[in-house]
Amino acid sequence: MKYAFLALPLLALTACEPAPEGEPVTRTRIDGKADPAPMATPSPEATQGGNMQVESACRSIIFEDTPLTHCLAVPSRHTIATDLSPPDGSPYRSLSAFSRNEDGKTIAFAMNAGMYDDEGNPIGYFVENSQRLQTLNTNEGSGNFHMDPNGVFYGSDGEWEVRTTADFLANVTERPQFGTQSGPMLVIDGKLHPEFSQDGESRLIRNGVGVDDRGRAHFVISNGPISFGKLARFFRDVLEVQNALYLDGNVSALWNPATERLDTGAPIGPILVVRKKDTPDD
């Protein structure tokens, strides 16, 4: 067990907009080369690496003139976990730090996973390896996290779900293997969040997650500024996701080892990690 911090004071929402002080997120590659220009490709896509073909769980796509990266986690091929810090250590605060503790060959992709306080600890429900490190946050407040309804992305044994916080509180009785609370919800039972306009004026780099009717988890990060409404419509209209959760904005970041993309920028908090399952050789 790393540590527990179950008390929930009224903390400053470091990851909420307006953005914290610091560098904006930079889309970069481990080798220092620029990320390729976004293009619509089938998912998953494959990239050449020496004499071996490395499959990527992510694809680049354009939605209404906005470039996005869409990453797909499939229960038969992937596992999902949350990660906050190395054992007995402080939060990673970056995907770069996290990557130094991992074998990239085992990682399909990783993405920041919700909002956090000044120390990088989650401000809402957070479960890692079936250990609850933070209780469900039902407080009222300002900022994106408290834009009712917010929600929880969680799962166990390859069954993944997104629920509103109220739904989670009322119906989930067993602790999942992983879980992270964030907000606002983007899509609720097939409908956009009631406070979103079609394409509002607030536009930042943003990311979110949703689960479709086949149990696949769709992770999306914008490669350019995007409104809440447009991001939510991509989940609903293109990915056909009934429930989707906003993870964060402006600090949003992705690590995709297959394409050597490793985003850097302002400090992040919790991380969602999608790992490849061991599969028999063909």
Automatic annotation (TrEMBL):
Keyword Metal-binding found: no
Protein's name according to its UniProt entry: Phosphodiester glycosidase family protein
Record keyword Transcription regulation present: no
Stretches assigned to the Phosphodiester glycosidase domain: 107-253
Keywords recorded for this protein, A-Z: Glycosidase, Hydrolase
Domain of life of the source: Bacteria
Region of interest (Disordered), residue spans: 20-51
Molecular functions (GO terms): hydrolase activity, acting on glycosyl bonds
Biased composition annotated in UniProt, kind: Basic and acidic residues: 24-34
